[in-house]
Each structure stands twice: as structure tokens, then as C-alpha cells.
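Box 3.1 A note on notation
Throughout this textbook, protein chains are presented in two layers. The first layer is the amino acid sequence; the second is a C-alpha cell string describing backbone geometry. Keep the layers aligned when reading.
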Amino acid sequence: MEVWLDAPTDSEHEGIDAFYSRQNSHHISSEDGLLYRNGATIGGHVHIVSEASQAEARSLAGSVEWILLTFEDWSMIPIENVLAATEGTPTKVAAQITKPIEAQGAGFALDIGVDALLCTEACLEAALIVKSLRLEEAPTIDSVEAESEDRVELSMMTITEIQEGHAGDRVCIDLLTMLNQGEGILVGSTAKSFVLVHGETIQSKYVPTRPFRVNAGSVDAYTYLADGTTKYLSELKSGDEIRICDSNGTSRLAVIGRMKIERRPFILLRFKDENANEGHVFIQQAETVRLVLENGKAHSVTNLCVGERIFGCSFSATRHVGQSISAPSEER
């Protein structure tokens, strides 16, 4: 981690990596939304004043070497969100701090931390302490798993417990495309463990098929968007692109036409993968809701048994506002 000092360049301080000036091109400088080092453009400067400016900063991820964040009112949330957006890209994040207490927050945000702290002399000691702590800890974080664009690595999940899940708000996802038999979406109540919920493509003697629909689960569950990020089911809306897949891991994109949320009784399924990583999901208690068994057949959730194996997937990385990040976390 670097420390950039916003002070006259004739100041004498040990441990700093660069001086910062808004117009002196011989050091780190910024002007008209661009960031320079020794006169050469190295990235963008975004002054955070609103959600729109945060979105502007996030949009630079992967396209520039550096993003410098300065603030109207200093806040951790934009720093965390921009760090999540740049995770797995070559883009580095620098953040302004205005008080010594902010140094540790920015320096260890999401347990990852910014790549540079911009500070005045009043915050320099705190910034240098955080720099020293970062140097002691690096490198301890594994890189985030790469996520395939058109294949999903599925594995077997063993059901360990089935119990009443009470009543809650259930989400049906109606798509602008027809699902094939065997296809569905990945749903999980944690960001690391998902099960494959089959589409309503199978005939029932009580209700007609809805081959464009997945009865997905509770509003707090996650699913995958087309770009590899996740969203809570409650956050999905018409026009969003989500990823559908089959038990072979073959996936494609589909656009949501409608979300249907109703209060329904749930079954709580607990499961674990082949490495004993545990997960759970709340699924509507209905015969027309199906998961995919080890033999590839869709099976009603009301007829599932403890010990049966179903298709799903596991990830070691956690999530922040849908982005895969390498910071550790625990979900239960």
C-alpha cells in the first residue's frame, strides 16, 4: 500500500510514496476527472457526492490503472463498493482520508484495503501505521475464483436436513424465453452454496406447465446475473439478465419479464458439498417445485429425503453487493 501526501513538495517526511497536488504534474496530480503521475495519465479522479458519482467510479474498474476517490462527506460504503468492483481487475484504488481514524477503515476495507491513502500531514502518522500493518500481512488473501462465461462448475450436494421453513415471501421468476427440460437457475441462501432449481416445464395433473417460470425461493436468496454477479431475488426486476443452466453446467442468458412475489409456506433444506461445506435454502412447499437429483431427473421438493444428492455449486469467495471478493466471511 502507498501513502500519498497532500503537502508542499519540499516537506520532509519518511515513508511516503508520492506527493499529491491538484495541478503539479511532476507528482501525483488530478485535473478534470483525470489522474496523473509525472505528467502521464494513470487513471481517473472521482469526487464522491452521490450514488451517481459512486457508479461513475465503479464503471472505471478494469479500464484504468488507478481510481482516486475524494469525498464531499467521507464514507466507507463507496470505498467498499469500488473495491468490490475492482476485485479481480488490474485497477488500483486510492482513497482520501480526512481524519486519522479513517486510515484503518480505508486501509482494511472489506479486509482487502485500498492501494493508496491520500492524506494531509494531520493524518500522516495514522496512514503510515496502516501501511506498516499492511506490509506485515501481505500476501494472505487467495485470489478470487475465475467464473466461466458459459459454463458453471456444478457438484453434488447431499441433503442433510429437511424441516418446516415457516411462511414467507416467495419469488417466481418469469422469463422472456422458454426453458428446456433440465434447465433452471442456481439459488442459495448463502453466497457460497447454491442448488439448481428446475423450471416449471414438467406436466402436473393439477396445474398446467409454465415453461418460462422458475419458482425460485425466498426473497433473501441469491441467484446469478448474466455478468457473474449475484443479486437477492427481491432485487431482481423485469429487464434483468440472469443465468440459467442445466445439470451438465451448460448455461445461457435469459431476460426477466416479470417477478411474482407471494406469501407461501416454505421447506428449509440444509445440504453440504463433497468437501463438507454447508449451505441451505428456503423452497416453497409445493409439488411443482423441483430440484435435480444425481441421476439428472427433476424431483419434487415435497418428496425429497435426507441423504439424497442434488445438483448445486459451491464457491470459496464471498460477495459484497453482488461482486465476488477474496475477503473471508462466515454465513449460516
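Residues 139-149, 319-323 have pLDDT under 50 and may be disordered. Residues 155-315 form a domain with the Endonuclease - Pi-scei; Chain A, domain 1 fold (CATH 2.170.16).
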